Amino acid sequence: MIWSYIKERRSWILLFLSLQGLLLFVSYLDNAIPFTSALYIVCLSLLIFFIFIIIRYQRETRFYKSLVEREDSLDLSQLDDPRSPFEQFVTDSLSLQTEHLKKEASEHWTLLEQEKDELLAWIHEVKTPLTTMHLIIERLNNDTMKANLTYEWMRIHLLLDQQLHQKRIPFIKNDLYMEETDVEDVIIQEIKTLQSWCIQKGIGFDMDLKSQKVLTDAKWVGFIIRQLLTNAVKYSRQSDIVIVSYVKDEQTVLEIKDVGLGIDAKDLPRIFEKGFTSTTRHQDHASTGMGLYLTKKVADALHISLDVTSKLGVGTSVRITFPKRNAFVALTRM
Known about the structure:
single chain, 334 residues, alpha+beta, Heat Shock Protein 90, five-stranded mixed sheet, two-stranded antiparallel ribbon, 11 helices, 7 strands, 60% helix, two-component regulatory system, transmembrane helix
């Protein structure tokens, strides 16, 4: 144990010896300091130092020696476990803590799943009276009231639809059905949903679809187009929204261009972030910052690329680039 003691304190032992050696070296070079006197002081210091080490060694190792004696007196059953009682206590405590946290996490996950299922069930139930309400609105003779009620109905319908898809997105891989999809049919269906709103704002559509057939999931692509068209109508002035499609590098590209408020250049990198709203229209309480975030999540799942270009006060253009045909294999393996 003496060697372990010296090894642990070798740094300050070496420091002390170095200082004594430095004193002898200085006295050897400097004639003003008698070398014999310096050597006497060094020898006396070394003697005192060694006595100090012996005394400290006895005091500091007394407790550890008692621990060694106790370890030597342990029975064979205790020797089977190489861990100390403290290490065993810590290990057992961590195991209990881990099991407790796992149990809590499982309970929380079960509660979240239950809440999600209840919310989805509620949304489906609400859709029934909404459909009935729409039929009643269609029978109204007052065109002004009919247009206003249709617009409010559409807002509720879109919010519920967004909430429904938001809850389904984490499980989108289980819901994908890749098929030959006519983009024009999907766009027309979404325009019909927004028809009353577009008429109210005086917004029309200019379509030129040179490429219409894509291999994708029609329902989820409809959600992407719905979110983009909703934003285009919401932030556009009285004008036409241009929708074009074409083939570039063996990929179908769909562009939606509006003449509206546009997006500030400093906001463009953040538009797909969850909860982000425009810095130029930060007081717009109707904006939730979820539409484009959910759109990006769905697009990533479908291997669709979204590119947005915009100029503040001029308008916005969104390019939807569908994957190549051979990317279908990658999607089916998700």
